[in-house]
């Protein structure tokens, strides 16, 4: 069975959920082989095996991550040449998409980004893409070279399947051309204890309707184990960090459940969340445009609705 390469997304060996999703998808197409770059493999191995990675190609040299994404594209190109995989899967994050694009050029292969579904098809790979900020879904397939596919977070439910995760340390040195830019400092974000916004299964966002008090939004999010997002109005007002902004000029999220609290539903906000599987809004204006989009709407004051919902969830 042909190998399917999955680029592992991890922080010091803590494997992100997107990787278990990609390994699940890879099993539909062939035999998953993980590609692990950087330190922390011992911590990652169990997770990679649990989600079905049969092999793990790894590169420990810190040089690969020191020079942004270009060396990773070179590494994957080398593996494509050596292993002739059935496909290469990467997360559809800004970094993942840059790696995928560079890899597609190096291997003269077709590239599909923002895939929300990937299935084996006759002699190839069939994908569904979400484009124009979720306004259209497009069916696409790669017709040249190795299918390079960047898959959006939450596009598959991770399914366990024991794999051997037999590791092979690769001898890889980035070319001089790949060393054109270097990371000079890297500071971890202050930990909130909440899931990462773009990969969370549930996102609760607050807007101008919070009037700057996100405590009820955060309490509700915590009762659900959700990430917290914000509209640009809330971010511009300095009420919530820019890294939490959802929308056209913020992050694109596609969780199982998105709850918009005190957010009107401007087109630029929708651009970042309208592909969410289920959308709920809490807004005191029953004519707010967000209600055109929702699966469930609550007309009410978020300062009254959210504490009641939080209490009910905690009591359940
Ligand atoms: P508002 O539109 O002011 O809505 C506040 C809502 O809260 C209202 O519907 C109101 O009824 C409700 N409300 C008030 N009090 C309560 C209460 N107590 N309980 C319940 N409901 C209450 N916006 C983004 O979000 N993300 C982006 O990435 C983004 N990019 C942009 C890019 C460009 C180029 C431009 C021009 C704009 C962009 N915007 C973006 C801004 C966007 O157009 C809106 O201005 C913004 O989304 C509005 O945020 P909001 O819904 O929080 O505020």
From TrEMBL:
The keyword Electron transport applies. One of its GO terms (molecular function) is flavin adenine dinucleotide binding. SUPFAM superfamilies: Adenine nucleotide alpha hydrolases-like, DHS-like NAD/FAD-binding domain. Keywords: Electron transport, FAD, Flavoprotein, Transport. It comes from the Bacteria. FAD binds at residues 208, 231-232, 245-249, 262-269, 283. Residues 4-188 form the Electron transfer flavoprotein alpha/beta-subunit N-terminal domain. GO terms for biological process: fatty acid beta-oxidation using acyl-CoA dehydrogenase. The keyword Nucleotide-binding does not apply. Its cofactor is FAD. It holds the Pfam family ETF. PROSITE patterns: ETF_ALPHA (PS00696). Binds 1 FAD per dimer. Belongs to the ETF alpha-subunit/FixB family. Heterodimer of an alpha and a beta subunit. The electron transfer flavoprotein serves as a specific electron acceptor for other dehydrogenases. It transfers the electrons to the main respiratory chain via ETF-ubiquinone oxidoreductase (ETF dehydrogenase). This is Electron transfer flavoprotein subunit alpha. It comes from Terrabacter aerolatus.
């Amino acid at each position: 069975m042909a190998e399917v390469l999955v680029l592992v997304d991890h922080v010091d060996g803590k494997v992100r959920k997107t990787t278990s999703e990609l390994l699940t998808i890879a099993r539909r197409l062939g035999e998953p082989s993980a590609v692990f770059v950087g330190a922390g493999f011992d911590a990652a191995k169990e997770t990679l095996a649990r989600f079905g990675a049969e092999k793990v190609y790894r590169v420990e040299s810190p040089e690969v991550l020191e020079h942004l994404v270009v060396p990773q594209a070179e590494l994957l190109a080398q593996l494509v040449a050596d292993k002739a995989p059935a496909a290469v899967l990467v997360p559809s994050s800004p970094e993942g998409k840059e790696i995928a694009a560079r890899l597609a050029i190096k291997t003269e292969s077709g590239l599909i980004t923002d895939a929300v579904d990937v299935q084996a098809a006759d002699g190839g790979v069939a994908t569904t893409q979400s484009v124009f900020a979720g306004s259209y879904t497009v069916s696409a397939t790669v017709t040249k070279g190795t299918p390079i596919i960047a898959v959006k977070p939450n596009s598959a439910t991770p399914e366990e399947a024991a794999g051997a995760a037999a590791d092979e340390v690769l001898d890889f040195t980035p070319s001089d051309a790949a060393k054109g830019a270097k990371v000079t400092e890297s500071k971890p974000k202050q930990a909130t204890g909440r899931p990462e916004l773009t990969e969370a299964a549930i996102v609760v966002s607050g807007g101008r309707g919070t009037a700057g008090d996100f405590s009820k939004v955060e309490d509700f999010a915590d009762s659900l184990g959700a990430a917290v997002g914000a509209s640009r109005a809330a971010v511009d007002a300095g009420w919530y960090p820019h890294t939490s902004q959802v929308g056209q000029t913020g992050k694109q999220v596609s969780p199982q459940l998105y709850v918009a609290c005190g957010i009107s539903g401007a087109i630029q906000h929708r651009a970042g969340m309208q592909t969410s599987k289920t959308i709920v809004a809490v807004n005191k204006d029953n004519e707010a445009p967000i209600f055109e989009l929702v699966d469930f709407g609550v007309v009410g004051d978020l300062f009254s609705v959210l504490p009641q919902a939080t209490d009910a969830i905690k009591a359940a």
